[in-house]
């Protein structure tokens, strides 16, 4: 029976699709995809994303909260950094100079408004009111706001380098500050004030362990960890393969190049979105918010240092400063986020407000 169960693991779609997606990446590596190849790779890319969500949830179930929320957040950030660097390295310098800024800011808007809005919507529809811990969630939002201001707002106003750019010293400071602040938050979340980030049910009960099922055995967790890595590599490779098609489609449609950053952010944050909405539907709104704000935090706190290191070898400018429209949207996101979080309870109205801000961001990205 054990042998049959072991074989069945390798026959599941969550095992087959990541492997096929990785094979597709290796087959089409260094070649221009034909139209049918783009379709095949895109489908396998979606399958690999869904599989990564499954394996991340298996690992999260084993390690518990809030450690589980970090697994997918860090994994997705690795995808984001790899995509940004690869597209910047292979694209037009004049167009890719602001790709890191556009992608990181899009990730912040999608997580803080899109994922948060969808999670509050799912929780409120199911149980009328979404319940969460304002201490932990408020600390997460404050960290996101600080990271976004240091890395994306200040370059617009500094004068040491021409344009909305940091000088080398300023970029090094922003990278170190971002990494240190993210590390401090992770320490607070997982050790010193772990109880602030545990799920709270609508009955007011703190949930320290998953109910209805015992944690998966270590063997299954190890298999999921390996398959998660395979899925992430496949997602990075397949997304890089279809990115030229995305850039051509954006250009042919007459849309600004910043839309490419939005598309990249949407692709890499799909696993987070699915996992967060699932958690919200299980009355784990706090877990959903951990995923949302943790992803935003990781997108800045880990991406900016990685881009700063990569800029040593890359040629061309690195534009990080936000435009006035984006700064207004960021300020609106922070203000509405504070109003949503402080009571520790949210309704459909709060969800609608955040989703409307995301809709405004996407619309203005296409028609600035």
UniProtKB/TrEMBL annotation:
Its main location: membrane. Keywords: Membrane, Transmembrane, Transmembrane helix. InterPro entries: Alkaline_pH_Ca-Antiporter (IPR052946), NaCa_Exmemb (IPR004837). The chain crosses the membrane at residues 9-30, 36-55, 67-91, 103-125, 137-157, 169-188, 221-237, 257-277, 289-313, 325-342, 349-366. Residues 36-190, 224-365 form the Sodium/calcium exchanger membrane region domain. GO terms for cellular component: plasma membrane. It is a multi-pass membrane protein. GO terms for molecular function: potassium:proton antiporter activity; sodium:proton antiporter activity. The keyword ATP-binding does not apply. The keyword Membrane applies. It is found in: Membrane. This is Ionic transporter y4hA.
